[in-house]
What we know:
It contains 13 helices and four strands.
Amino acid sequence: MSLQELLPIILVGLIIIVVAVLFTFIPVMLWISALAAGVHVSIFTLVGMRLRRVVPSRVINPLIKAHKAGIDVNTNQLESHYLAGGNVDRVVNALIAAQRANIELSFERCAAIDLAGRDVLDAVQMSVNPKVIETPFIAGIAMDGIEVKAKARITVRANIDRLVGGAGEETVIARVGEGIVSTIGSSNSHSQVLENPDKISHNVLSKGLDAGTAFEILSIDIADIDIGKNIGALLQMDQAEADKNIAQAKAEERRAMAVAQEQEMVAKVQEMQAKVVEAEADVPLALAEALRSGNLGVMDYMNYKNINADTDMRDSIGKVSKDKEEE
Length: 327
């Protein structure tokens, strides 16, 4: 085939390629869908979205949905929210749900809530249908020392105005738990808590625990209440055990001091006996010196020996009598 015969085929192929690329780059079908829905979007706007790396369907489809629902939003608002990392479809759904529920919610507020990381559609639905949060068993101690455990169900409704920067469910549960503990602790006895569990609900609800949170507390209901341990008795037992240990320690200290003092007295006795033995050892020397010097006569010495003999005899007789009495 000659070049003149191939030229028309090449031109047709090039036209087909250009059209395919054009339809791939320009979402013509999306543009037609928008026109059919009454949303006027120029083809150049869609091309600009492609150049800005925006998926046109992520913006145009929510725009069509909002237009059909009567929500006043434009392409620039949706596209800027998409570029900021928000979920455009969820924001539009939330606006439609808020409009149906007669809740005043602007696009700026809705976009801010979505960018804050909260599910704005879930928040709108929670404003219509309140949510029930159930706390775990919270233990408090009445004035009589009895532990009381209570479980509460908190009915909350989302507060749209405080969703951005407001505290979450954990804060609500913590505040309600604190209120339950303080109410039980201010009761004179655990029987008062068991007789009037609604007292806990009224006291906790009157504290305004939803301040600074993303919720509005509608009601607090005591779901279950139970008796725990006798904490007062346990504390008294622990105190008595501690007092006993202290008393035993002091008694042991006094016993050790008495034993030490007894040992000191035994040592003193031994010391005195040693001095007596030492003094008795000097007696024969003194007698010999007295005999040599003439201060002691022979008869005096004999009388001294007789007295010693009589003393030894009396000691022997006394020892024998004592042994017989013991037998």
